[in-house]
Design a protein that fits this description.
alpha+beta, 9 helices, 25% helix, elongated, binds zinc ion
């Protein structure tokens, strides 16, 4: 190719330029003639030329060969590296790149969603069982009502960024020994937005969002479990880039109850009875989450024995039956006796004798809970 320009001339550097100077010159030239930026005819050809020159001059061996033999060092084809030529392994890549660049309707990635927010709400044990309407207060970014998020005064349309042509990114061709690669970095002029805020909205100062204190109603469903998290779609922060709002995650913290503990749908409680009640049985009133209920303690109840109160537990949070309440009976030995009681116990002792039963060590509380729950 007789009209092929000198590589040094292409990059605008002297023949004695250092590697650094060559790299800097390449960057300047490539930026200036990048087809994404430069819409003039021939910019694409010029850009290819710059890349070809840089590929040779940035490689010490090739540069030395070029210095001695000129373009002849690269063979007769004039396209020594298959640079974007037909049949080149990089041809397709290059084609699609320039195809995309030439197209005026740029495909941009979907705008980023607003940030998610998380709040914690405290509910009582009962509220977690039966459900409650709660209010949470939070501070969040909302779309500016004056500009509707356009960031421009009176909601005008913001003009396209002149640096990136509206794509929001600057693409660069990188030469490596494996060939050329496109790298895309966010445009620094518009911060990747693709548009410029030339006349900022005074209400949001061109941010498109404003911070607002809000009180949000949250429906805590009956049966919610400890540390469960509710998602309120699109109740998070507004997007700064015109995307959808983030979500609000509400973490539910359940206060402990003085009488009840909870294992998912099962409520557990304990009652203490005296030795006479345990031996003879009794009619009791037992506290449940629904209030006191009548319960017949059978005769010969052993300490640690458990009873199941059906449907006195926690409703299924997805709807369905309530769980049960498990009542553990503890036989409480009196710490103090009246004279009458002492006499009666002495008579009882004489009647029952002083024999003891040898038995293996009792099973633990959790084994018993497992028995009752059938797990
Ligand atoms: Zn605004
Ligand atoms: Zn830009």
């Amino acid at each position: 190719m007789a009209d092929k320009r000198d590589y040094y001339e292409v990059l605008g550097v002297g023949r004695t330029a250092t590697a650094d100077e060559i790299r800097r010159a390449y960057r300047t030239q490539a930026r200036q003639h990048h087809p994404d930026i430069n819409r003039e005819d021939g910019a694409e050809e010029r850009f290819k030329e710059i890349n070809e020159a840089y590929e040779v001059l940035s490689d010490d061996n090739r540069r030395a060969a070029y210095d001695r033999f000129g373009h002849a060092a690269n063979g007769a084809s004039g396209d020594p590296f298959g640079f974007g030529g037909a049949g080149s392994p990089f041809g397709d890549l290059f084609e699609s790149f320039f195809g995309a660049a030439a197209s005026s309707s740029r495909r941009r990635a979907a705008p980023a969603r607003g940030a998610d927010l998380q709040v914690t709400v405290d509910v009582t044990f009962e509220e977690a069982v039966f459900g409650v309407e709660q209010e949470v207060e939070l501070q969040r970014f909302e779309t500016c009502e004056a500009c509707h998020g356009t960031k421009m005064r009176d909601g005008q349309t913001s003009p396209r960024c002149t640096t990136c042509g509206g794509s929001g990114e600057v693409r660069r061709v990188q030469q490596t020994i494996l060939g050329q690669f496109m790298t895309a970095t966010p445009c620094s002029n518009c911060n990747g937005e693709g548009t410029m805020v030339t006349d900022p909205c005074p209400n949001c100062r061109g941010r498109g969002r404003v911070s607002r204190a809000r009180t949000i109603g949250v429906s805590i469903p009956a049966g919610i479990d400890e540390n469960a998290t509710l998602r309120l779609t699109s109740q998070g922060e507004a997007s700064a880039h015109g995307g959808p709002a983030g979500n609000l995650y509400v973490k539910v913290r359940i206060a402990p109850h003085p009488l009840f503990t909870r294992h998912h749908k099962t409520i557990q409680s304990q009652v203490g009875v005296n030795v006479a009640q345990a031996a003879l049985g009794d009619e009791l009133e037992i506290a449940t989450i629904d209030g006191p209920v009548a319960f017949t303690l059978p005769a010969a109840t052993q300490s640690g024995q458990q009873f199941r109160l059906r449907n006195r537990g926690v409703p299924d949070v997805r709807g369905g039956n309530r769980g049960d309440q498990i009542v553990t009976v503890q036989v409480v030995t009196p710490r103090q006796l009246t004279d009458d009681q002492r006499l009666l116990f002495e008579q009882l002792a004489a009647s029952m004798g002083s024999e003891i039963t040898q038995q293996p060590s009792p099973r633990g509380f959790f084994d018993k809970v497992k028995d009752v729950l059938g797990v």
